[in-house]
Amino acid sequence: MKTLLIVFHTMTDGARQMAEAAARGAAAEPNVQVRLLPAREAGAEDVLQAQGYIFVTPENLAAMSGIMKDFFDRTFYAALDRVVGRAYATLICAGSDGENAVRQIDRICTGWRLRKAAEPIIVCTHAQTPEKILARKIICADDLQRCEEVGAALAAGLALGVF
After folding, report:
1. What pLDDT band is residue 88 in, cutting at 50, 70 and 90?
2. Which DSSP string do the residues of the chain spell out, in sequence order?
3. Where are the domains of the chain?
4. Would you say 74 and 38 are in contact if contact means Cβ atoms under 8 Å apart?
5. Burial, 136: exposed, middle or buried (Cβ in 10 Å; 0-12, 13-18, 19+)?
6. Which of 114, 111, 117 is closest to 91 using CA atoms?
7. How confident is the model at residue 110 (pLDDT cuts 50, 70, 90)?
8. Rounded mean pLDDT, 106-130
9. Beta-ladder partners of 87
10. Per-residue model confidence (pLDDT) at position 49
11. How far apart are CA 89 and CA 81, in angstroms?
């Protein structure tokens, strides 16, 4: 059985909703075990034991969240040269454009020599005031469906041996 690891961090609940949607989509594939872990709890062994990954983070100050960066800092060298060719996808809950958070994750995944399995999904909440930035986010059904489809596609690819 293949394992899909979904690592997420959230401050205002948007990224968690996106990660859970991806996990729901992936769970439809019976031959793939889905592991949904907060970035604080995910470690190098989790990365090494998975054959595919979905990284889900909010955009904070035009970057991935510090907790997601911490996850990569703690796991990068332990996984280097040991996860080459595995599939990944990225989901970003952004207040503005989210592109820099995607670029940061793509650079790390390039270092690991992972294979991008899907175009990144950026859900823009347009939160631009302190009150809106810190408020709990509600991700709309259409965006959650897109996240679910990424999870389903990645799981199907793992089950079929495409990734």
Report:
1. very high
2. -EEEEEEE--SSSHHHHHHHHHHHHHHT-TTEEEEEEETTT--HHHHHH-SEEEEEEEEETTEE-HHHHHHHHHHHHHHTTTSTT-EEEEEEEESS--HHHHHHHHHHHHHHT-EE-S--EEEE----SHHHHHSPP---HHHHHHHHHHHHHHHHHHHHT--
3. 2-160
4. no
5. exposed
6. 117
7. very high
8. 96
9. 52, 115
10. 98
11. 19
Global confidence as pTM: 0.97
Q: 2-160: CATH homologous superfamily? A: Flavodoxin domain (3.40.50.360)
Quick check: 133 pLDDT over 90?
no
Determine the Cα–Cα distance for residues 78 and 74; give it in Å rounded to an integer: 8
